[in-house]
Design goal:
alpha/beta; two-stranded antiparallel sheet; 23 helices; globular
């Protein structure tokens, strides 16, 4: 009996855990149906009466008038004006404005956070109802079914409460339900990366955890590619982890904003900095605007991941200076002009960087130098985090370091200075290979090619295509941009062989030293391994190189023939057009000349007859003189008319000859230049193919 009683506390804890889990699951499955007034009450706003609600349009017009007055102001000045306007309203009037135009008020800087939260909750409910109705009409085999379902579930979760751990005041940690707080919500913002997978744009969302207006420490998180409304919860989870202490309790004096406020790229356009440039301006405007709702002494930290580090870099360069701490993690680079922290000219801001073991994005340096390698940055440890997406994982050194930065306890930070070779075998070689490719392919070509490849990649990501299905389309895109001429197969595989040899050398040398071999023995073994690796790779890749070289020869030959055919056809068309127009103008000149000659002959004859008649009949002198003048005027008129037509026709013929001849010469010169260039490629690819 005693043993059974002793088990009761454990059973009670188990039942409590099960009940908590059931509540959580029930919250996820709950289908929300909430009136705007109920949304207002979630954040302590009063429910307006019918008469008060009618004043919404007038109050909304007043708000827009304030913005119009400050349309040329900075984001912070505009936000301050909006804040002042709302401060002049009663709580009921604030609720009225939020309900009158929730999509406008919910995304407007300067509006009190709780009013924005309420307005956005109204918008989320409306969007959920509309998209859920659309989803109910989708067949399960529809390409858009999967992503639309995920989007519906995400919107549902936005309206349902989340569980958070807090202290009950008696030393116990308990789970309580908390209404989710959205500072930004726009379901129709941005591009639609894959219309077949989802008819909806990616959207923009920003969620707040904590009390934004009272927090002493505020963090802003910026994500990278492929983040959208339908997978926002995966991103926001990192914000929940960040604000918790070691016991998973959310810190009361801290707030975290998970900001998905820009149009994130897909895979294809992630090589293009365009969205980062625009996103940088949007991040800067958001940070300046939200400053009016923060404590003046609040310490702010910005945590940027992946492509988000490039967005942050652009924001810092566009005027975002009121940040105490900036942390870059998993960065593809901060732009071609940023090589050190000093390039930002922000001496009062602390800069940190993280590169987890095996993070391939950091190795590529696709957008510039990796900030983890900057000589003047504080590089933080990431113990336990591997790859590209573990930085916010609970229990990792990366999350612990970010929490120390956020909470202001930087004495506990851990640092590292590991090299690529120490972090991941082959990482240094990957970086060298990417640099080799960057040197040979213009960034503009890379951007265009990425845009063409993205629909193909989307087909793979969303399950519509297999790797076998995309081989030919990818091959077509590569040929379109002459990639085998920009990066010749023999040069590419030569570089691969060199890097493979280097890698074999490093691995063998380390293995030999680890076994206690003398240095000269380790070097001999390493050199032998490198030579063997290069030789073996040469044998293995030779057939592949030959296939690619033949493909290059065929592609260059086709382009040469197509170019000659196209330019030759244009030259022939220009020649035919010139001949036709000159012949037409020539006929016009002959016709006008004939008419003019006939007119002059006739009028001249009439004048001669009049003169002769005057000698015979002197009394007819007046009539004959008048007739002669009339004939002379007619002859002059005809001469000017037909002569002008003939001159114009002659000029047209001359211009036609000049223009078309010039076009023919230009086309011929262009054809010769292209033929010479492409002919060189043909010869080069032919020689490579036969082994010279």
């Amino acid at each position: 009996m005693g043993s059974d009683v002793s088990q009761l506390p454990m059973i009670a804890r188990w039942l409590e855990d099960e009940a908590r889990d059931l509540r959580r699951r029930a919250g996820i499955l709950r289908t929300p149906s909430e009136s705007p007034f109920a949304s207002l009450s979630k954040f302590g706003l009063p429910t307006p009466t019918a008469a008060e609600a009618d004043a919404g349009k007038k109050l909304d017009a007043g708000l827009r008038a304030i913005l119009a007055t400050h349309k040329n102001g900075t984001p912070q000045e505009q936000a301050a004006a909006v804040k002042e306007y709302f401060a002049s309203l009663s709580p009921t009037q604030q609720a009225v404005v939020a309900a009158a135009d929730p999509s406008f008020v919910g995304n407007l800087e300067g509006v009190p956070p709780k009013v924005r939260f309420a307005a956005n909750r109204i918008s989320i409910q409306k969007e959920f109802d509309e998209e859920n109705s659309y989803f109910q009409g989708l067949a399960t085999n529809d390409p858009a079914y999967k992503r639309t379902k995920a989007r519906i579930e995400t919107l549902r979760s936005f309206l349902n409460p989340r569980l958070k751990k807090t202290s009950d005041g008696n030393g116990r940690i308990v789970d309580v339900e908390a209404t989710r707080q959205f500072l930004i919500f726009d379901a129709h913002f941005g591009s639609t990366g894959d219309p077949k997978a989802s008819p909806f744009p990616d959207g923009r969302v920003a969620e707040v955890v904590g009390d934004l207006e009272k927090a002493e420490h505020v963090a802003f998180r910026v994500p990278g590619i492929l983040n959208r409304l339908d997978n926002f919860n995966d991103f926001s989870k990192g914000g929940y982890n960040l604000i918790q202490d070691a016991k998973r309790v959310e810190q009361p004096d801290t707030a975290v904003v998970s900001w998905l406020g820009y149009d994130t790229p897909e895979v294809g356009d992630s090589v293009d900095p365009t969205k980062a440039i625009l996103g940088g301006y949007q991040l800067n405007a958001f940070r300046q605007g939200i400053s009016v709702n923060l404590r003046q002494d609040a310490k702010t930290s910005l945590f940027a991941h992946s492509y988000g580090t490039l967005v942050t870099s652009k924001a810092l360069q566009s005027g975002l200076t009121n940040i105490d701490n900036v942390t870059f993690m998993g960065s593809p680079g901060l732009g071609p002009n940023i090589h050190s922290v000093a390039d930002f000219h922000m001496p009062n801001t602390n800069f940190f960087a993280m590169r987890a073991v095996g993070d391939p994005v950091s190795y590529t340096q696709g957008h510039g130098d990796d900030p983890a390698d900057f000589p003047d940055i504080k590089r933080l440890g990431t113990d336990g985090a591997t790859g590209h997406s573990d930085y916010y994982k609970v229990g990792t050194g990366s999350l612990a370091n970010m929490q120390q930065i956020l909470f202001g306890d930087t004495k506990k930070l851990t640092f590292t200075n590991t090299t690529l070779d120490q972090e991941k075998v082959g990482a240094a070689e990957v970086r060298e290979l990417v640099m080799f490719l960057h040197e040979r392919v213009d960034p503009k070509v890379v951007n265009k090619m990425g845009a063409d490849l993205d629909p193909i990649v989307q087909g793979i990501l969303n399950g519509r295509s297999s790797l076998k299905d995309v081989i030919l389309p990818i091959h077509s895109v590569l040929n379109k941009y002459n990639m085998l001429d920009r990066v010749k197969p023999d040069e590419l595989f030569g570089e691969v062989q060199k890097l493979a040899g280097n890698l074999a050398y490093k691995q063998t040398y380390k293995a030999a030293k680890d076994r206690g071999a003398p240095d000269f023995v380790a070097k001999i073994a390493a050199n032998t391994a490198a030579t063997s690796s290069r030789g073996l790779l040469t044998v293995v890749t030779w057939p592949v190189v030959k296939v690619l070289e033949f493909d290059r020869l065929r592609n260059n030959t086709r382009q040469l023939v197509d170019g000659l055919r196209s330019d030759g056809r244009k030259m022939l068309e220009d020649g035919q057009e010139m001949t036709s127009e000159v012949a037409q103008d020539g006929r016009r000149i002959v016709s006008d000349g004939t008419q003019m000659g006939g007119t002059l002959f006739k009028d001249g004859g009439n004048i001669a007859l009049g003169i002769g008649d005057t000698f015979v009949h002197p009394g007819h002198v007046i009539d004959n003189t008048a007739g002669a003048l009339k004939s002379m005027d007619h002859a002059k008129s005809q001469f000017l008319s037909k002569g002008g037509d003939a001159v114009a026709a002659f000029n047209r013929a001359t211009n036609t000859v000049v223009d078309k001849s010039g076009s023919i010469i230009h086309t011929g010169r262009d054809m010769g230049s292209k033929a010479l260039h492409k002919g060189t490629d043909v010869i080069d690819s032919a020689l490579n193919f036969v082994g010279f």
